Fold this protein.
Amino acid sequence: MNGPRLHCYGCGRAARVILRWLHEQAAVDIGQVCNRSLASARVAVDFIGAGQAVTNLDADVTGDWLLLGIPDGELSAAALGLACRMPGQAELVFHLSGSTPAAVLEPLGVPVASVHPARAFAEPEAALGAMPGTWCVGEGQAEPLRRLQTIFEKGGGRWLSMDASGKAAYHAATVVASNYLVTLNELARSLASVSGLPAPEAADLLDGLQRAGLDALKGSSPASVLTGPIERGDAMAVARLVAAADEQGQGELFRALGLATLRLAQSGRGSLASDSAVEASLTSRSD
C-alpha cells in the first residue's frame, strides 16, 4: 500500500481530481468509488485510473478513509443517511467544502475534517496538472487534520488550517478571487463587443490585461498597483465609461465596481479634488 486506502462517496470533478492526484503521488490507495449510477462511477474510476466502481458502499470501508465529494447542500443528509445504512465504519471521514464545517459529518461517529483545495475544477485535466503547489485549507478535528496534512503535502500541496468560524468569509474570498474574476471578464467582453474590435482579438487583449494585473499584485498591495481613470481622478473619462456601460445594460454593475475602485484608490493616494465629480458619475442613474 502507498498510504491509507481512500474511498469516495459522490465522485464529481473535484473529488476525482483529488483522488487521481493523491494516487499518482503514491499518497493513497483508491478503494470504492460510489456514485448514483454505476456508469458515472465507472467514468470516475477511468479518470482516476484506480478504484472499484459501485453504487453502494459496503463493509470494505471499515478502517479506511472516506471522502464525501458531494455538494454542500447534500452533506448533512448524506452523513445522516450513511450513518444509518453503511455496513462498515470508516476510520476517518472528510469533505471538500470551503464553507460547510466538518462538524456536519459528525453523525458518522468517527473523526471528521474538511479540506478545501483552492483550485478551480471546471477542466479536470488542467486542474490535475495544477495541483502541485495548490493551497489546501483544512478545518475540523485535530487528529484527522494532522493525518490529512501529511498526505496532501506528500502530494505536493501547500497546507493551511483554519477554524470553522472563519470558513464562510474564507470561501467568500475564494469566490470573489476565482468566480467573480470570470464574471468580470464576461463584463469586459460584453462591453468590448460593441467597440468594433474582432471578438477573438478583444478577448485576448482583455485576458492579457487581467493576467498582467494579477502578476502585478504578487508581493504588492491592491492600492499600489491600481491604475486607470478612477485612480487618477479623470471625471470626464469616467462619465463617458458609465454612459457606455449604461448603453449595454451593464451600468449598475459598472457603477458598483467603480465605487469600490474609487474607495481603493483613495486608500492609496488620498482624496483628489476631482473625486467628487467621479463619485457623482458613479452614483447617478440613467433614465
